[in-house]
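> call design_seq(struct)
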């Protein structure tokens, strides 16, 4: 049987949605609130329902062979600081829970993706900078 993987919400999320805890999924941003990793945080990389552990990006442990591996943390030691509401059913669940306490929840606007034009311009600027450096290096080599 799988464990219910609910994690407490941060104070501002509690106030915003009127709920204390919510199931954690990949993509949520969490913070460790107790234990040896207290204060560390990051995006949830994996939720293992069988073992009841949550793996967070950036929190690793060294294996015997020297490689780094994800460190499983118990959900009761975590706090959600940012919810991933990209899945529609998840937002609907929050909305229904908030309605019980007469809290109206507005659907958050999705974060804007960087435009391809901007990224192409940035790429061209980088290429020009590299080309200028090469010409400077070539000029210095010719002088020496």
């Amino acid at each position: 049987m799988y464990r219910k993987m609910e994690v407490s919400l941060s104070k501002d999320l509690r106030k915003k949605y009127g709920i204390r805890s919510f199931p954690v999924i990949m993509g949520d941003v969490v913070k460790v609130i107790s234990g040896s990793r207290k204060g560390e945080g990051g995006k949830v990389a994996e939720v293992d329902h069988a073992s009841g552990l949550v793996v967070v990006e950036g929190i690793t442990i060294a294996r015997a062979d020297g490689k780094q591996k994800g460190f499983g943390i118990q959900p009761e030691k975590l706090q959600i600081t940012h919810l991933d509401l990209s899945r529609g059913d998840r937002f609907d669940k929050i909305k229904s829970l908030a309605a019980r306490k007469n809290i109206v929840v507005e659907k958050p606007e999705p974060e804007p993706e960087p435009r391809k034009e901007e990224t192409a311009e940035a790429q061209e600027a980088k290429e020009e900078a590299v080309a200028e450096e090469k010409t400077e290096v070539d000029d210095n080599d010719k002088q020496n």
